[in-house]
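User: Quick sanity check before I run a bigger batch. Here is a single chain. Can you write out its predicted 3D structure?
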Amino acid sequence: MAFKLSPKIVFMDKMEKLNVMNKILRELEDVSNSSTALLKKIAQIEAENINLGNKLLEQKIPDVFEHTDNVLTETTALLTEFTTVRDTFVTENKLDEVTEPAP
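Assistant: Done. Predicted structure follows.
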């Protein structure tokens, strides 16, 4: 349960923070998976355009692919770094010794 001192300050207990960190990690994983799916779709468009030969797609699709690939790279790096942050938080607060109740 969060405790409010002012409209802008909210304190969470350690388990709440861990739950939020885990949720963020799941969401980052979703972004990573979505980016991978987008890259596959962009590659399909690029392959289909080989036969079509549309100049606009030839010019623009590589940029779209590069931007999406950069999102995937940054998201993967953030996921790795934030996992370390979460793991450190768990260790420092001895939360690895606490078991959560089954849902």
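Strands lie at 3-6, 9-11.

User: Great, the batch can go ahead then.
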